[in-house]
Design brief:
Strand content: 5-15%
Helix content: 55-70%
Order of helices and strands: HHHHEEHHHHEEHH
Number of helices: 10
Oligomer: single chain
Length: 428
Amino acid sequence: MSLLSGQKPRNEVYSKLVLLSLLAVSPVSAQQDVPLTLAAAEALAMADDPGRDAMLAQADALDDQSVAANQLPEIKLRMGLANFPIESGGFSTEGMTQAQLGLRMEFPPGGTLEARARQFDFLATEMRETAEGRDRDVLASVRSAWLDTYYWQRTHAIVDEVRPFFVDLANVTRSLYSVGRKNQQDLLRAELELSRLDDRLIEISNQHSVAIAMLSEWIGADANRHLAEKLPDWSALPPLSQLQSSLLEHPAVNAANARIEAKEAGIDVAEEDHMSGWTWDLGYGYRDGMLSDGTPRSDFVSLSVTMDLPFFRNERQGRQLSAAFSERRAAEASKSELIRRLNSRLEAEYARWTELSRRIALYEAQILTQAAANARASLVAYQSDASDFANVMRAYIDDLNARVEHIKLQVERAKSFAVLANFGGIPR
């Protein structure tokens, strides 16, 4: 089952998201203290998306055009005065002078109206599929922005957590230096690393602000809220073959299918144009005056049928039909290229997710534990004068970097999952 597949399920999802967003923003004062989860951020973004609304409005307009295109032309009313004598100037002086009233009705060739209506129907379907594709793109963008913000928030928290140790280490080194137990180089190294840590915090804060600004593009002022401490549980994926199968239900592919159907209807329109259209005229002519024998002049009724003659049609309509076939081939080629491109991106992203998962497993099984143990061991060795101060600083910086890198890998894997979810096949 593809992500957000089908109109009715999508509406149900939107209803739930909107409800969640309403719960998330009321009351405002209390909401600021509630951590912003990724699901809540998604709800806020999906509740108000002018881009999607514009696309759906265009689809509605195309539906209306489809209904209008399938209607016969309006009946034309014709009124006039025929054979009025200029010199005598009387309505009854000439026998053929008459007041005319007529109706004209045009009938387009064959099934032209129905074919044009189908064109608009498929174009409306294409627009709705494009709107669903935008839904997925919005979700992917919100997820990426939220995850970036999360990364810098957690990184700042980790650095803040270890900073007191570096402060204590610098203070202890300063005290030991004052009594001659440590040399000045150790003190300078401790102060330097503390300054570098503060500089790192400044850069992290700056990047955090940038990430918040990017998130605010989608959810407004709620981007300033503190994020939830845990990432979504996106540690498992369906098999690649399942995702590849779901790719054929991607909104972009569905839109391409609808575009091909619209081009097929265009071929039908061009073929129907080879047939002749008909125009019916019904007229009534009123006459005044008398005949030579004293009887009133008779009124006239006329009926005529007009049809198109194909004397100059073959070249023009042949070109139109050829153009319609070419447009369909172009749409089919675009679809094939789209599927190939989506499949390539899917395989590459799946490989990336797999690699990140392996690295995360390595960090959790070995690297984090080893880095922490190495930091503790270096400190014990330094306290017993079995190691120098540089080893201590290097070990604790390595431990800090390992923790930050672990968070980064988790965030990058979550981003990769979000990209894969965009392709479909991953139930939400």
